[in-house]
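Section 5.1 Outputs to date
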Amino acid sequence: MGERGRPRKFDPEAALEQAIEVFWRNGYEGASMADLTAAMGINKPSMYATFGNKEELFRRAVARYAEQDMAYARVALEEPTAYGVIESFLRANADALTRPDRPAGCLSIQGGLAFGSDDGTVAAFLADSRRAGERALADRLVRALDEGDLPAGTDPVALARYVMTVSEGNAVHAAAGVDRAALHATVDLALRAVPASGVT
């Protein structure tokens, strides 16, 4: 029988990892189907059968990225103090943005910097994903405020937005070639704006 009748020989998980790399380097709009299938080692029919269309593949890639590459964000939320949460997140983020085994920057930022043919649905999806992370951080900071770990009057939502703005800005700079030490220097400055503990 021809190749079409044989069972799939490729590893879907490994193929998804390769798709992540392509989307990360080229963005959603810049990643062609030819680029994706070549990197994944499969043909278009196999790609469609396993992952659906390009947008569905991208959504799965982002989900895998959030689960694996951004696991540090969930770890940071477990720190006992608000300052510890923010420092852990921003330090780990700076390291993740400059990993030698990954493209520089952040998939969720790079993936949606340009869009066109999708009517903005991918950019909206990525924005929603980032807002979900910001809400999780804000919820943790609300708890810190309730526990007296942040000074009375601190706006936890604004503080979470500030932290995410720093991390997203560092992602853009990392993609432009800024090194890890420089990103950590930015984190040093950002941490000065974190309110001191309200606990005496």
